[in-house]
Amino acid sequence: MDLSKIKLVVSDMDGTLLNSNHEVSNLFFKQFEDLKKHNIMFVAASGRPYYSIIDKLSAIKDDIIVVAENGGLVINNNEQLLSTHINRNNLYALEKIIDANSHIHPVFCTKSKGYFKSNSFGYISVLSEYYPTFKVIDSVDEIEEDIMKVALYHSEDSEKFIYPLVKSFENDFLIKISGKNWLDISDTLANKGHALKLLQDTFNITEKETMVFGDYNNDLEMLQLAEYSFAMENAHENVKQTANYSTKSNNDFGVEYIIDKLLKAKI
Question: Which residues have a Cβ under 8 Å from the Cβ of 5 and sit 6 or more positions away?
Fold first, then answer.
């Protein structure tokens, strides 16, 4: 594994760069300074909204590229490179299914905030960890901004209890199980792979020069665009089958473990 040619490092956030307490390690921030010295670009690619990613990485926010909302939004140093929102034509049918199943807690995601349904009141503390800027609504008709993504939360298992109810919408939306408790619905072009390909083309970076880390199904497309793709030890089985390599879990500094090898290869 020759890491000496790497120019771009892309990491998912939850379950990957963040530990189970939703924290970024001090070690990573130290390593980031060394990545900068070697002119290696870093991209935070997450299902989280832009403002939540920036909150977690505030110390380095001016020096990174952010791929938010599973690829629906790409921002580099305050310059918006990509924005893909949902066509509302089929959104009301989806909303009816969500409203008919009280165990599903939706977040309608716009660039500026997340919109929670009023009947999810008991889950606001959980939802706001990922969407700290939010407003409570009764209907999507109250949302005037473009909706970039609908994130659906289930307290037990999104794949088991949400996916069967929304899979019929796969012809209209991109539906991704993005975590144990989360399922994301977005425009068919709003995925992390589409965003990564844009960045590779923009900065003239090849797959051989790209390193990617991921743990769940919303990472699959971007893992396929890097020769040095890594599945976390805690990753979904689909991710382990897709990635070319593996690393330690997010709680065992799996990303930092490989970045250390990358930095040593640059010496």
Answer: 208, 209
Within 13 Å and on the Cβ side, how many CA atoms surround 48? 28
What's the pLDDT score for residue 88? 86
Render 19-74 in DSSP notation, one character per residue.
Answer: -TTS---HHHHHHHHHHHHTT-EEEEE-SS-HHHHHHHTGGGGGGSEEEEGGGTEE
Query: Could you tell me the two tokens for 146?
Result: 């473009």
- Parts of the chain with a pLDDT under 50: none
How far apart are the two ends of the chain, measured CA to CA in Å? 15
Task: Supply the pLDDT for residue 148.
Answer: 93
How many other β-carbons are positioned within 10 Å of the β-carbon of residue 129? 12
Q: pLDDT digit string (tens) for 78-91?
A: 899 999 999 888 88
142: Cβ contacts below 8 Å, ≥ 6 apart: 115
Q: Are 216 and 178 in contact (CB under 8 A)?
A: yes
User: To which residue do tokens 């790409």 refer?
Assistant: 74
The secondary structure of 201-264, three-state, reads HHHCCCHHHEEEEECCHHHHHHHCCCCEEEECCCCCHHHHHHCCEECCCHHHCHHHHHHHHHHH
Read off the pTM.
Answer: 0.90
The whole-number pLDDT of residue 206 equals 98
